[in-house]
Amino acid sequence: MFSFLVRRILATIPVMVVVALFVFSLLFIAPGDPAAVIAGDQATPEQVERIRQSLGLDRPFLVQFTEWAWRLLHADLGRSIFTNLPVTTMIAQRVEPTLSLMTITLLFSIIVAVPVGVLAAWKAGTLIDRIIMGFAVLGFSVPVFVIAYGLILLFSVRLEWLPVQGYRSFSDGFGPFISHMILPSVALGIVYMALIARITRATMLDVLAQDYVRTATAKGLAPRTMLVRHALKNAAVPIVTVIGIGVALLIGGVVVTETVFAIPGLGRLTVDAILRRDYPIIQGVTLLFSAVYVLVNLVVDLSYSLFDPRIRY
Question: I need a labelling partner for 121 at 20 to 30 A (CA). Which of 36, 129, 235, 305 fits?
Answer without folding.
Answer: 305
